[in-house]
Amino acid sequence: KKDKDGLKGKIKVVAQVGLALIVGLMMYWSPDIVARENTEIRVNNVIEQVQYKDQNVKTTKTTIPFVKNNNFDYRWLVSWMGDFADEAVWVVFVLSVILIVTAVSNSANLTDGLDGLASGSSAVIGVALGVLAYVSGRVDFASYLNIMYIPGGDELMVFAAAFVGATVGFLWYNAYPAQVFMGDTGSLTLGGIIGVFAVLIHKEMLLPILCGVFFVEALSVILQVTYFKYTKKRSGIGKRVFKMSPLHHHFQKAGNAGIDALIQKPLIPITEPKIVSRFWLIGMILAVIAVATLKMR
């Protein structure tokens, strides 16, 4: 007898963590994944020039948006360990990669509930990641933006272009009304690729902005489930924050649909194509903001 339910949630999480663990270890220990840290030359407290170290180095630093001294070092999280910090930092880095890849992957999976929503949003994110990879891989642009120079980072733009091309090609048939569906295999993979790509170019701190649509969708599910369990434990009756989660389904329900939720608006349901289009527009705005943060500090 065939099982049409697919893999259980726990098995999916274990697989995600396992793959992210392998990726994190490879990224930390591989001699080919390197960077050149930026050093500011200041005159009268004004940045006159940005220089880079002569040699490529392994680094656990990453770019922080909206901050002038915009490098965050994972080593700082274990600095309290003193002399053992250098030996323990790989654990923090790998755990961070696992968290990032798993979070983005599952968020993309939750977003895949309307025709074209996940694929279109991923294409927008892919374009932004391609731009970030290109400027990080060009020493002149990296120096101008005062960010880490990633040798070979511009080559990742080729992969980003392929990623965007694949998602747009899929979107051609996945747009409303959809003829094909990606399922968990596609959405989890899209999120995983985005997470790994961001870590490779040391821009994972931009993901909350760049993947804002994904994270809001995931947050809506977390809030819904948490509030439902809390109210059921307190009063015996589970209540909802949204009419339905993930968030995109909330907008499909009428405010007078008889669902006891804290947020009833909009009272008139919104059509699926309009919801998807608006989420795409929000994703585009967030992508522009994410790229602009390289200079907005």
What key attributes describe this structure?
mainly alpha, 297 residues, 2 domains, 10 helices, 56% helix, single chain, two-stranded antiparallel ribbon
Write up this protein:
The chain is mostly helical and 297 residues long. It has 2 domains: 9-206 and 275-292, no CATH class; 218-266, no CATH class. It contains 10 helices and 4 strands, in the order αββββααααααααα. It has helices at 9-29, 85-111, 117-137, 139-145, 156-174, 183-200, 207-210, 212-235, 247-250, 272-292; strands at residues 38-43, 46-52, 61-63, 71-73. A two-stranded antiparallel sheet has the order 1-2. A two-stranded antiparallel sheet has the order 3-4. Helix 2 (85-111) runs antiparallel to helix 6 (183-200). It is globular.
Total domains = 2
Number of strands: 4
SSE arrangement, N to C: HEEEEHHHHHHHHH
Structural class: mainly alpha
The biggest beta sheet reads:
2 strands, antiparallel
Beta-strand proportion: 5-15%
The gross shape turns out to be globular
Instruction: Give the mean pLDDT.
Output: 89
Helix content: 55-70%
Straight-line distance between termini: 59 Å
Question: Taking strands numbered 1, 2, ... along the chain, how are they ordered across the largest sheet?
Answer: 1-2
The whole-angstrom Rg is 21 Å
Unreliable runs, pLDDT <50, ≥5 residues? none
Put simply, the count of helices is 10
